[in-house]
Amino acid sequence: MALKFLVVDDSVTMRRIVANSLKSIGYENFVEASDGKEALTKLNSDDTINFVITDWNMPEVSGLELVKAIRSDEKKQSIPILMVTTRGLKEDILEALQAKVNNYIVKPFTPQILREKIEQILASA
Questions:
Q1: What is the pLDDT of residues 105-119, one digit of tens each?
Q2: Fold assignment, 5-124
Q3: Which of 9, 61, 73, 125 could form a disulfide with 55 if both were Cys (CB 3.0 to 4.6 A apart)?
């Protein structure tokens, strides 16, 4: 299955970093959204998106709210979600896992860490 990523972050720079990291580990197919609201619009209009990488802290709809919205949508609830955020407290990680993110990366990260987390998610799918 060809992966098409949705990269969600309100920071253009951070979206660029994630996109460049994806390219460096061999993933070329992705679209971007600047917040959870835009991400939901893209998910609803593009059935080929099958992996979400999202930040937590964003205006409009946060990453956590995005995760909950995806998980409550019958058609999209099985899409893998990787949260990439500065929120590294144990409580934050637990809250994200309870919302059913598949994996969690605390910024900053390397392309190798991104690859490992994506591979872990795909292996358990």
A1: 999 999 999 999 999
A2: Rossmann fold (3.40.50)
A3: 9
